[in-house]
Amino acid sequence: MHFFLDTAEVEEIRKGLDLGILDGVTTNPTLVAKTGRPFREVIEEICSMVPGPVSAEVVSLDTEGMIREGKTVAEWAENIVVKIPITTEGLKAINALSREGVRINTTLVFNPLQALMAAKAGAAYVSPFLGRLDDISTPSLGLVADIVGIFNNFGYETEVICASVRHPVHIVECARLGADIATMPYAVLEKLIKHPLTDAGIKGFLSDWEKVPDKPF
Ligand code: E4P
Questions:
Q1: What's the confidence (pLDDT) of residue 115?
Q2: Residue ranges lining ligand 1, Cβ < 6 Å
Q3: Which of 124, 164, 192, 203 has the most C-beta neighbours closer than 10 Å?
Q4: pTM of structure
Q5: CB 43 within 8 A of CB 7
Q6: Residues of the chain with pLDDT under 50
Q7: What pLDDT shows up at residue 169?
């Protein structure tokens, strides 16, 4: 399973890279706006830091504008993935750009048919948004199970990115369901290795170690 950071903060990406398990980055206009930095500058810096895929989102609503913006950002770095929302106009842009070899991450996916349409159009990735569904009392994990199952049924190579992740349980469930990727805030990534019993265990071992005679280190 691949882990991406869902952030445009380069410091968080640096910390993720230090852990040695970071496979890629996703951004969106909200995350870029939070940095207060110019879009191209921040995306190019992230692409130079991370060897894996880096998603940058288009903001036009019409197919022509999405294609124009997609082609522009795709030229900024080899590892750019163009993020396009799953609308009628978006679907046409996904089709056109995918045919030209641009990798697309289909964003704002909330039902399995949106994911199937994106896969048919040639998208490299689909991003079901878990947290935003849970926020409106709609269980999100069934969506991931449906998409993974449908892609397996037909052999689609489109990868499933679990997005809008809020907590470690989302990651466990996505892993159990066979999602290819989870993209998460740095705060969630940090929590994946935390357990109070691990901390308590270390404390106990260190305290007992003090009683060992002739310690070699
Ligand atoms: C995914 O690529 C999106 O950037 C992201 O996961 C959205 O998450 P949010 O619902 O926390 O804004």
A1: 98
A2: 6, 26, 28, 107, 127, 129, 131-132, 163-164, 183
A3: 164
A4: 0.96
A5: no
A6: none
A7: 97
